[in-house]
Design a protein that fits this description.
alpha+beta, Rossmann fold, six-stranded antiparallel sheet
Length: about 425
Amino acid sequence: MKRTSILAGAVAAALATLTLTGCASTGGSSSSGAAAGEHWVASWGTAQMVPQSQDELAPAQWRDATLRQVVRVSNAGSKVRIKLSNAMGVTPLVIDAASVAVSSGPGKAALDPATLRALRFNGSPSVTIPGGAEYLSDPVDLAVPAGADLALSLHFPSEPSRQTSHPGSRTTSYVAPGQHVMDADLPGAATFSRWYQIAEVDVLAAPPARAVVAIGDSITDGYGVATDTNARWTDFFATRLRAGGMGEVGVVNAGIGGGRLLRDGLGPNMVSRFDRDVLERAGVSHAIVMIGVNDFGIPHRNKEDSPAYRAALVLDMEQAQRQLVARAHARGVCVIGGTITPYSGSGYYAPGAENESDRQAYNRFVRESGVFDGVADFDVALRDPARPAYLKKDFDNDGLHPNRAGYQAMAQAVPLELLKSCKYAR
């Protein structure tokens, strides 16, 4: 019996989509848009989505307003540039003033005035970003230490037609009426924990500086992490790289809560967003791909996972990964496959034995197929040896997501040797 692939539509859409980026593509090991000899590397980044209504910023809060957002860079550089995003917008977005500075730290709107730099776009203080596009700022001289917190301040004359956001920022952001991008503080600003219209911070750094992008679902996004603690597994991984003599490697977190490999969830499916969120990052050399628990869990919760559906699902997931890896290799990027961690203790999905069987089948593919350039075995790192279908108690938050100790264990599970070279690098 011939099955209908649930992947076909997603692959066709992904291959037909061209992501627009300011100053040119920044994927692979190249530094597009840079002056001759400059080497730009993504030091922070996030994935974009259309926020749900409860995660939107009210229209009035955008009008003649300054939005200040704090992000933590992972590696050092002598200059910075910022990628602004209107990826989910449908009409041009105007930002008429912007700045970058070293922040006073997470949970603070204040910044260090000595580090405050106005941003320009082809020499202009304002920029109009077309719908669906992302633009880079001009570089600014600002020495950024590894692990520094940066404050990105943007002034909006009016609200976006459709907001581009990352609701799972787990970091406090600030909005205040008026134009205050060059102010050292925003007293009385309203606060919320989401990011809007920002996609990436690049640093100018000498080779062999490069970036690794972790892409996945809420486990990569850091579900359960307390606001302003920077305790996602990727945060711990960046700290581990610096401690292990690989501090030149930038770490970008492209996780989306509720994300799926094949179908849209709370955000776009991974097949459709892989180019923008991974391959177009400045200086990217490696991707770590961990995805699938929502592909299994959502159909089960919705009572859609018949045996025929499940059989097609696993095959389609394998096909999708082969497609992503082929695209990455063509751009000079190596791909590390991440196994899916146990979730039999999840009350949200309440998986059955058949779902655990599918998880094991997919993990065998990750470990044994040879499709990936290496494996980060998060399953082995977090599972309970006595009950391998469950998270180890010391690492368990809610039966599905790790706790802080679990995220630390994930950071330790990535073999650093895999990041030292890529045979596909251009």
